[in-house]
Amino acid sequence: MQAAGRNRGTLDAGVSLSAERSVRANLREILPLARRIRLPSLYVGSRDDGYTFFGRDTRQFHRVTPAKVNRMLLVPGGDHGVDLLSDENGPRVRATILAFLQANAR
Q1: Mean pLDDT, the chain, as a whole number?
Q2: What is the pLDDT of residues 60-86, one digit of tens each?
Q3: Can you tell me the distance from the alpha carbon of 93 to that of 39, in angstroms, rounded to the nearest whole number?
Q4: Three-state SS string across the chain, please?
Q5: Are 10 and 37 in contact (CB under 8 A)?
Q6: Is the dihedral of CA 9, 57, 62, 44 positive or negative?
Q7: 11 alpha carbon, distance to own chain's centre
Q8: CA 1 → CA 41, 49, 66, 91, distances in Å?
Q9: Residue 10: pLDDT above 90?
Q10: Side-chain-facing half-sphere of 24: CA atoms under 13 Å
């Protein structure tokens, strides 16, 4: 979503797995960039993910993104990042991402 917030027309859509408000490596706040996202966006997270404060960060990103197409999928469990693609929620998450990209990417 950092790239989507800085998009200069090179991206068609953005998908975030487990959106976090800051990048732990430099503790830089990312949420303000979400306020500039205009391209179709999909936020995917889990309700018990401690890295996103139990989905709070993911919900905040979704809430502040002004894109006309702005979707969110919160699944049960505590998966974070790419684990969302492979664990018990994997089939649902992958299907949601594929459908979103087919509908919103060139």
Answers
A1: 91
A2: 999 999 999 999 999 999 999 999 999
A3: 20
A4: CHHHHCCCCCCCCEEEECCCCEECCCCEECHHHHCCCCCCEEEEEECCCHHHCCCHHHHHHHHHCCCCCEEEEEECCCCCHHHHHCCCCHHHHHHHHHHHHHHHCC
A5: no
A6: positive
A7: 15
A8: 9, 18, 13, 23
A9: no
A10: 4
Give residue for tokens 């975030």: 16
Q: Which two tokens stand for residue 75?
A: 């699944």
51 three-state secondary structure: helix
Residue 92: φ, ψ to 5°: -65, -45
pLDDT at 22: 76
Q: What distance in Å separates the CA atoms of residue 93 and residue 75, rounded to the nearest whole number?
A: 8
What is the pLDDT averaged over residues 37-58? 95
User: For residue 31, what pLDDT band results from cuts at 50, 70 and 90?
Assistant: confident
Contact 13/99 with Cβ under 8 angstroms? no
29 vs 84: CA distance, rounded Å = 23
Can you tell me the mean pLDDT for 10-30?
82
